[in-house]
Amino acid sequence: MQEFFSVLLPDVKKELRRAIIECSKRGLLHSTKWLAEMHHGLSDVNIDNAAPDDDHSFSECQLEGIAPAEYSDYFLAKSYYDVREYDRAAHAVRNCESSVPRFLHLYSTYMAREKRRLDSTTDQANLNEPNQMRDLADLLATLRAEHGRSRLDGYGIYLYGVVLKALNLNKAAEQMLLSAVRLVPMLWSAYLELSPLIMEKKKLLSLQLGGHWMRHFFMAHTYLELYLNDDGLKIYEDLQAAGFSKSIYLTAQMALVYHNKRDVDKAIELFQALLESDPYRLDNVDTYSNLLFVKEMKTEMAQLAHKAVSINKYRPETCCVIGNYYSIRCDHQVAISYFQRALKLNPKYLAAWTLMGHEFMELKNTNAAIQSYRKAVEVNKRDYRAWYGLGQAYEIIKMHYYSLYYFKIAHQLRPYDSRMLVALGETYEKLDKCENSVKCYWKACDVGDIEGIAMYKLASLHEKLGDNETAVHCYIMYCEDERAATDKQSLYQGFMTLANYYEKKCDYERAAYYAYKCLDSDDRKTEAKALLKTIDSRRSAECQKKKSTTVVATAETSSEDEMEWEQLDVRVRVPFTSIADKSTSTSTAAANAAGPSTSASSTRRLRSVPERVRRTQPSQRSLIGPTANSTATATTTTTTITIPTISEETPGSSTAATETLDDITPGTATSEQQGTTHDGSSMEISSVSID
């Protein structure tokens, strides 16, 4: 901080006090007012206990630059000047030769010419009309001659620069004003006249301003004019830390910084603190009313308007506040009348021209709005609001190439303002330059979409171009944050588009989710209900289709299983007697050939027959079903099988068994199955299965 501001505060206060006296002597009222506010901000710095020589120097300063013989003429001229009788003041000191009375003569002449020009200027006239500029030609010649003879001090060179600037000789005016700043570094009016001539940061940094501490205030002020708000805010914070924390001017400038950054709440807070510390201040009160207008604080707006009228109803700022009050009440015609009154008080009042253009736009009076915006541009070419308003006006009358030109200028002045980028994108889209339009919309999203519509515009454009996937992606990004969307109709349009998209993709969950959100919109409710009915019917159809598919699949599976079981159940059923005879004959033959061990194994094989019968019967019941099972129950019961004594095999038994096997068909029983054995033993056998 010591490197940033290396001057001691007592020395700063002394310089301010001396500059107040010098500017006051010459009638430079605005500079005197600013210097006095800065001096008051250093009230904690004590310089009253200075040496007597310092007090003597201050008293001498009040009459320095005035010849003793010219005291009476000067005092008379100064009194006329203070009551705005500029011609009388200039005439009173016309023959004076000392520096202060000579400057007062020239400056009073300039103020008289300017007053006549402004009084004859109506709200329909051109501010820079050539016949009005002829009045300054004589004064310019006089100043040029005085400068050629090196008779102009720093204050005179400042006036020379002001006249050059009024005649649009900006390059020469810039050189004169820089010379004045270097000669009189405490002349704040010279900095204010120089600032509008600086159009970019690079040029500002290249200026040779000298090493005086006043350059910090000029740099910060110009940064604000260039909308480099962060750079300006940093300088103001450093100045507050350096000892100017009580300065009203710094507080007001920081409020303007937050206003430009669209931090409305912080700006309102600073303005309220400013009005508490200085309740009768009207400077920048028009900006405060704009903030209240944005926040739609009608009660506070009404209170501010009444307070401004009670302080001074003939100030341009007061008329502007009243105009904003009627504008927020949608009484646009009355608002225009108050803005016109402000312009009669000060035809170079920039805010009134711009706001009046807005009111004409509300009344659909496009021609009057264009004229008002053009006047605002004449007053200050860096006013992006006027350029943006011109673009909107020409867009309404469908002159898109004109609107594109003005939107480009507004974008150059505010390169990080998404509103300018969205306006450019819309204009490019209307001119069928979709590639440029897409770039503008994406950049608007990158820098921070103020209005919250850039992503919606981008999605709509992709949808128009047939790129549905990208459009859906943009709609999803747009609909993620519902609170950020300022245009609810656009939000519901996005919901409806996503619902239709997912409905076509058969993603009914997401489609229903977005469709339900549209039920809150009166315009989209009917369409959303119809879509929800369609989704419900398609869901029902899909469920029905799934059920039928499941039934068919289950039937096919069960039929395959039944076929397998039926194949297993298709067994040859023979009388037990045939089995016994065949087994007996087979076992006897084997026994004769193999001995006792073979007989035992055949015996075990015979024992397995009834076990196989018992295992087979439940399987048959399970496959028959309820109806067949009830029939089988009536004829078939659990049977105790008595194995007869195996006798010798009779001749022809094998042939009989073979014949029996050929005669039996699956699922039928012969009379022998329910009869008796060949030896008369009674048996009840339902069936026998042989693998």
TrEMBL record:
Question: A biological process (GO) annotation for this entry?
Answer: anaphase-promoting complex-dependent catabolic process
Cited InterPro entries: APC8, TPR-like_helical_dom_sf, TPR_rpt
One Pfam family here: TPR_8
Chain positions of TPR repeats: 248-281, 316-349, 350-383
> Ranges for the Cdc23 domain?
12-255
Q: Where is this region: Disordered?
A: 583-691
Query: Does this entry carry the keyword Oxidoreductase?
Result: no
Pathway membership = Protein modification; protein ubiquitination
Task: Spell out the Low complexity composition-biased ranges.
Answer: 583-603, 626-651
What keywords appear on the UniProt entry? Cell cycle, Cell division, Mitosis, Repeat, TPR repeat, Ubl conjugation pathway
In the UniProt record, which is one GO cellular component term? anaphase-promoting complex
Composition-biased stretches, type Polar residues, lie in 667-691
Coiled coil regions, renumbered to chain: none
- What PANTHER family has UniProt attached to this entry? CELL DIVISION CYCLE 16,23,27 (PTHR12558), CELL DIVISION CYCLE PROTEIN 23 HOMOLOG (PTHR12558:SF10)
Q: Per the similarity annotation, which family is this?
A: Belongs to the APC8/CDC23 family.
User: What's this protein's name?
Assistant: Cyclosome subunit 8
Q: Which organism is it from?
A: Drosophila virilis (Fruit fly)
Which gene carries the instructions for this protein? Dvir\GJ20073
